[in-house]
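Subgroup meeting minutes
Present: P.N., E.W., G.H.
Scribe: E.W.

1. P.N. recapped why we're keeping a running log of single-chain structure predictions: easier to compare across weeks, and new members can see raw inputs and outputs side by side.
2. G.H. added today's entry (186 aa).
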Amino acid sequence: MQRIVVVGTSGAGKTTLARRIAERREAPCIEMDSLHWGPNWTEVPPEALRVSVAAAVSGDAWVLDGNYTMVRDLTWARADTIVWLDYPRSVVMRRVLWRTARRMVTRERLWKAQNVERLGTTLFSRESIIWWAWSTYGRRRAEFTSLLLDSPPSHLRVVRFTKPREAERWLAQLPCNGGRASQPAW
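Output recorded in log:
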């Protein structure tokens, strides 16, 4: 398990888990949103994004978070493991609401683009992450069920979690820096 992609609906906790896995494995963590978003919430052109992602996943070990279909051919081809956070909508919405509120209060700057979540676009718009998480939940879940359960890529190990505590137990057993876990990691 050297090249891991963490997937799931927006707000599930992909970035947090990816960072924790990367820290434990002492591997680079690649945050897709940081590659995708430019200043003032402008999207990086698809060609530039593909170049950035190809460079980011060229290494021997990494952990990447994100569901960007426009680069899935690059990320999944290089990955050996997919970790799917398949949590209930209630968990996802609680997490995305909490994260968004925290970011607005602290005015957290996101990625090198230094974007800040704003009240108007964050809560009251169809462009908000909250609306996006709610409206894409079912579609994303169906998509990953098809891709990862119905016809999984043969070269990928798929690890699926339906509850946060399952991911916590797995992470606790995950070998550190290439070492061996006392029990299997799945």
